[in-house]
Design a protein that fits this description.
The chain starts with 10 loop residues before the first helix and ends with a helix. Strands 1, 2, 10, 11, 12, 13 and 19 form a seven-stranded mixed sheet that branches. It has 505 residues and is an alpha/beta fold. The relative contact order is 0.19. α13 runs antiparallel to α17.
Length: 505
């Protein structure tokens, strides 16, 4: 038996590896159905090929690393499909304006982010659709008044000035109060009427998989602040807004301040996967991590049943918290496990619907009333049609985004395709008459770990979890920082930095 021991691991690791192989071979002799596990040696193992794991891998690609991903493609919740030469998102739809780590990484990869054409947003009130930020402002004013609207925007703007992201958050008395108060109670206590609560309950379900009564007020602030300019003068209501056509034309001139790639966010995750080249292993399901002397034994199974164990000096785990706890139970500290068991995940489902004629093509994202089965309808070809003028054929694809009513409701995962479609068609027809009759095909994607819910005390937990890191087992992912794509990128980068710092110690 020959074992090639790579530079960087100590002799103890090699001896453990040999012992492991001999034990596995002995077991195989007793049971011919069990194949001996192959043992490899690497400095760093990264578990999880979502954006956090990919980012960590990208910044460590010059090191002796292996990234293990259980699926056949990278991206995690950032996935896409294709229909008639057009790409549609199955998961992540868009980002805010990229900066810092994300902007630098995109530039070095030779990619180009595109601002989403306006109207970016629209809202359906059960009777009619309003377009653009101006249209949404008029919608809220219509069901309250101008004074209330300006009061709401100034409240959000004022609170946002005190906000900072994990792990930079200054957890003082003010922050703690907002962290342990639910968002609905906070809005109500500040005299914000029901129309705003209904609108942002839909937003909350779409972003966190939970209603306003389940998330902390602190976690709502950055998301709502994103919708409004920091203008202390307040909104000025035009006495003569013009016709519906004129209002729509004005909405097309707005800047969306939201970005994607021509073929969606998966352009980035696919490119990162390509950059890792031979250091990425797809179809590799990690079954457990144990401590072996000064190193870690990461056991995984490839498709086809081949079992392999990697001995590594350090490990980055970039999987959802419940998965992390399952595979790393033997190596996580009791403190970490106590914190992580309180991180609740909510599911979501996306349904892409194909048709021969357009159903919705006047804006990128249409928000619907809170009582509807889904939270949003997207024109899935909105960006690609705008930026790729060479494509003359126009497919019609809308994506419907389904979030649970509460974070503890997992019923959308157990519904059959027919049940999901029945509910989607029912409410889609309320917006667009007889829309369901136009559907010629569909694609359904289910995400069991859709959102790490920012429940009460989330920032308290996250700060403690970030401070619990050691230099050999690093945790990464949006549950470590904030449940957005950009935050997950930052988490992956931070994990890579910690690994590099540990290597220099």
């Amino acid at each position: 038996m020959q074992i090639n021991i790579k530079h960087g691991l100590n002799k103890q690791a090699a001896l453990i590896g040999i012992c492991y192989l001999l034990c596995a071979t002995t077991a195989s002799a007793r049971d011919h159905a069990v194949q001996p596990a192959q043992v490899e040696f690497h400095d760093i193992v990264i578990i999880g090929g979502g954006i956090s794991g990919l980012t960590a891998g990208y910044f460590l690609k010059d090191k002796d690393i292996i990234l293990l991903e259980k699926n056949d493609v990278v991206g995690g919740r950032t996935s896409s499909g294709n229909y008639k030469q057009f790409t549609y998102a199955r998961g992540t739809e868009y980002l805010g304006e990229p900066d810092d780590v994300l902007a630098g990484m995109v530039s070095k990869l030779g990619l180009e982010m595109k601002e989403i054409p306006s109207p970016m947003d629209a809202i359906f009130d059960g009777k009619s659709i309003s377009y653009g930020s101006d249209g949404i402002a008029r919608h809220l004013i219509k069901y309250s008044d101008l004074e209330t609207y300006n009061k709401f925007t100034k409240l959000i703007s004022s609170e946002y000035k005190h906000y900072d992201e994990i792990p930079s958050t200054e957890y003082n008395e003010r922050t703690k109060k907002m962290d342990y108060m639910d968002a609905k109670s906070w809005l109500t206590a500040n005299g914000i009427p029901e129309i705003y609560i209904d609108k942002y309950n839909v937003t909350s379900r779409g972003l966190f998989g939970a209603g306003l009564q389940e998330i902390s007020a602190l976690s709502l602030i950055p998301e709502v602040a994103f919708d409004y300019d920091d203008d202390e003068r307040g909104y000025v209501l035009d006495d003569e807004p013009g016709s519906a056509a004129e209002q729509y034309a004005d909405a097309t001139k707005e800047g969306s301040n939201s970005y994607t790639f021509t073929k969606g966010i998966s352009e980035l995750t696919d490119k990162l996967g390509q950059e890792l080249n031979g250091k990425l292993r797809l179809g590799s399901t990690v079954t457990g991590i144990t401590r072996q002397g000064e190193n870690y034994a990461v056991a995984y199974t490839q498709k086809g049943g081949k079992k392999t164990t990697i001995l590594a000096r350090r490990v980055i785990i970039a999987t959802p918290a419940p998965v992390t706890m399952k595979i790393a139970d033997a190596v996580l500290s009791s403190e970490r496990k106590e914190i992580m068991k309180n991180i609740n995940y909510a599911p979501y489902v996306t349904v892409a619907l194909f048709s021969d004629t357009p159903i919705f093509d006047k804006a990128f994202d249409l928000a619907v009333p809170d009582s509807y089965f889904f939270t949003d309808v997207y024109d899935a070809t909105w960006v690609e049609r705008f930026y790729d003028k060479q494509k003359t054929d126009r497919p019609n694809i809308i994506s419907v985004y389904i979030a649970p009513k509460t974070s503890h409701d997992g019923s959308i995962l157990t519904m059959s395709d027919n049940e999901l479609l029945k509910n989607v068609y029912r409410d889609l027809d309320k917006i667009f008459a007889s829309a369901s009759k136009k559907i010629t095909g569909y694609d359904i994607e289910r995400f069991p770990y859709g959102y790490p819910v920012m429940s009460l005390g989330a920032y308290d937990r996250l700060l403690k979890l970030n401070n619990s890191d050691d230099d050999s087992i690093i945790l990464a992912g949006d549950y470590m920082i904030y449940p957005t794509f950009e935050a997950a990128v930052q988490s992956g980068y931070s994990a890579a930095e910690k690994m590099l710092d540990a290597a220099h110690d």
